[in-house]
Amino acid sequence: MNIPGDEFYALLNEALQKRGEETLQRTLYHALREAVLNGRLQADSRLPGSRVIAQQLTMSRNTVNAALEQLTLEGYLLRSRQGTRVAQLAHRDIAQSSYAPGVTLAQRVAKLPAPTPRGTPVPAFTPGTPAINYFPLPLWRRLYDRVLREEGSALLGYGDPAGEISLREAIARHLALSRGIDCDASQIIITEGALEGLSLCTLLLSEPGNIAWIEDPGYAGAKSAFTKAGLTMVGMPIDGEGMRWDGQGECSPTLIFTSPSHQFPYGSVLSASRRLALLEFARTQGAWIIEDDYDSEFRYSGEPIPAMLGMMKNAPVVYVGTFSKTLFPSLRTGFMVLPPALASVVKPAIGSLLRGGHRAEQRTLALFIEEGHYARHLAAMRRLYRKRYKQLREVLNAELHVAHRVLAGEGGMHLTVAIDGIDDKAVVQQSKFFQLAPAALSGYYLDAAQGQSGLVLGYGNTSASQFAPAIRRLQSIIMQLRGAKG
How far apart are CA 212 and CA 196, in angstroms? Predict the structure, then answer.
């Protein structure tokens, strides 16, 4: 050895004394590995025999041999009939280097919109979060247990990459009744939420550098998906009839993203004339419309708004839905509905893009829908959210004394309050200290500096008893920030 025997055994004994919950074998392995890497045991140094090491350390020879064999397998030692030697390691000094290399992320990562904090418990006014404490968890557990009892280990494989056929059939029947969409299971792909659906659309239907029209302001997830795909985004302004587009003076898009039934965050409904004009434009230009139907189940006046996908035969529309808003976010289950021609062309590629999975959860959800529990839950949540919507409007009228305009329509789980002349991002930051999590309206624009300032207030997860004190707190924060600015 290149170090005296007593020093060698002192090194190993010191490690054994500090081993904690590690086994003797792993402790010996780590001590010898570290000694090789830091140079205390140099290349070609010969180690004592395993019998001698075992006697000196008062341990089993099998334990010593197991550690030496692992080091030999990994290339730190060489063992032969002549004994055990330390291997020659190229660039061994790298393991001891404290140099931290510079990290440069791809440029598109820097362009991603700021994420919405996702924590538990959910702070008041967090947009996009349903009343999860109202979800019938005991019922869901019984259905889940039933699925496992009946099918057991048969559900442990990957499954169909497009999703469980029972769930796709249940979704098709539900959409026919609730959204006016005539489709079958072959046109439906199950995804991990709406965001994966959007990402799949970009992979299947666009190339980097293509143009995508998006609502401005609009859903941050669409911006993320299009940014990751390297698309050039063009913002379309929003008014009381939804996306405003006159069909002139704009570069021809490959993808058009819209939330026509309840625009996020303004809440407006895309008018029938604009829907038809957009469908005709997409058809003539060879573009695809991505219809985000994130919370149309919660409409509080009039009849449900039919989906664009059902407005014309062979509409150039990919319909994207999610159960994160209607059930609970951690379910991470969404879906896409493709026109028949697109579905047949896409089918061979799905196996390369998706692997299936979450089969028991998908089967449980299929039962939840088929046995009528989903419809009953939606009806209960619609009543709850309608009540909270009205109560929040009343509290805003009574407690928010700064000049403001309520923009969101009668539906969904949020209200958007436009307030001129405030630093809405600073208001959001200050709100965190009081367990409030409204979103800054300006943050949903492509250019926040040019956007309308205000707050997006999610009431799905917030009880009515919290409305008045929370709005008073926001009023106080706004006035304090205005005073500091002045």
Answer: 17
SS3 86: strand
**Model confidence at 390: pLDDT above 80:** yes
* 322: nearest Cα among 169, 462, 135, 190: 190
Give the three-state DSSP class for 270. Answer: coil
Distances (CA, A) of 265 to 22, 202, 415, 464: 54, 22, 8, 21
Q: Assess whether pLDDT exceeds 80 at residue 94.
A: no
Mean pLDDT of all residues in 426-434: 94
- Sheet bearing 414-418, strands edge to edge: 405-406, 414-418, 454-458, 439-440
Tell me how far apart the alpha carbons of residues 42 and 38 are, in angstroms, rounded to a whole number.
Answer: 9
User: Cis ω on the peptide bond leading into residue 121 (within 30° of 0)?
Assistant: yes
User: In this structure, what token pair is assigned to residue 119?
Assistant: 């924590």
Using DSSP, state whether 464 is helix, strand or coil.
helix
Q: Name the amino acid, one letter, at 2.
A: N
d(Cα 434, Cα 68) in Å, to the nearest integer?
A: 58
Peptide bond into 217 cis (omega under 30): yes
Residue 357 backbone phi and psi in degrees, to 5: 120, 180
Q: How many CB atoms lie within 10 A of CB 434?
A: 15
Higher pLDDT, residue 370 or 352: 370
Q: What is the mean pLDDT of residues 256-285?
A: 92
**364 to 144, 158, 244, 353, 463: CA distances (angstroms):** 5, 16, 41, 24, 29
- Contacts (Cβ under 8 Å, ≥6 apart) of 306: 179, 180
> How many Å apart are CA 244 and CA 162, to the nearest integer?
35
Cβ(440)–Cβ(109) below 8 Å: no
The whole-number average pLDDT for the span 64-74 is 94
Confidence check: pLDDT of 397 > 90: yes
One-letter amino acid at 442 equals: S
State the pLDDT at residue 117.
66
Contact by Cβ (8 Å): 181, 319: yes
Q: What's the pLDDT band for 167 if we cut at 50, 70, 90?
A: very high
The pTM score is 0.84
How confident is residue 479, by pLDDT bands cut at 50, 70 and 90?
very high
| Residue 267 neighbours by CB under 8 Å, 6+ apart | 407, 408, 409, 410, 411, 412, 414, 415, 416
Give the integer Cα–Cα distance in Å for 441 and 468: 21
DSSP 429-457: HHHGGGTB--EEGGGGSSSGGGSPPEEEE
